[in-house]
């Protein structure tokens, strides 16, 4: 296995662990809220507006919203999809663009600073691995161009 493929596989593994671990941990911590969605009807799990516009939001309503945005509404599903895509591209020998790595690293850095303590910082490692893999993929082309120019 070449080093670019290995770097991308490690990056995708980190993304998959973070993406799958997040909703799994939430299911263990907030199972009552999640099971309550089934009782109330899945479409009414997080209503967009209160039934009475003048009504105050209760603690239960806010906890329900937090559970939704920490679970199915979080970035866990896109992170899992990005991890799967990165794994697939690595297997085909296609490098993920460095911009994806920079974006992932920046997002995880901001998330880690805003939500301390957090495993967000592990996402910075995944982003850095993508950047390094993209640069390794570009090096052979650059050296081949230099040989042609000489």
UniProtKB/TrEMBL annotation:
Keywords: Membrane, Transmembrane, Transmembrane helix. The chain crosses the membrane at residues 7-31, 66-87, 94-114, 120-136. InterPro entries: DUF6463. It holds the Pfam family DUF6463. This is Uncharacterized protein. The lineage of its organism: Bacteria, Bacillati, Actinomycetota, Actinomycetes, Streptosporangiales.
């Amino acid at each position: 296995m070449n080093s670019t493929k290995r770097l991308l596989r490690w990056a995708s593994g980190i993304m998959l662990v973070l993406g799958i671990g997040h909703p799994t941990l939430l299911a263990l911590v907030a199972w009552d809220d999640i099971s309550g969605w089934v009782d109330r009807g899945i479409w009414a799990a997080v209503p967009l507006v209160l039934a009475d516009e003048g009504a105050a939001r209760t603690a239960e309503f806010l906890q329900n919203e937090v559970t939704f945005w920490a679970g199915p509404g979080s970035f866990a599903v896109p992170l899992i999809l990005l991890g799967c895509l990165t794994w697939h591209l690595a297997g085909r020998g296609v490098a993920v663009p460095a911009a994806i790595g920079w974006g992932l690293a920046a997002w995880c850095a901001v998330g880690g600073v805003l939500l301390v303590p957090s495993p967000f910082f592990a996402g910075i490692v995944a982003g850095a691995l993508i950047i390094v893999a993209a640069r390794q993929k570009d090096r052979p082309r650059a050296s081949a161009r230099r040989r042609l120019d000489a």
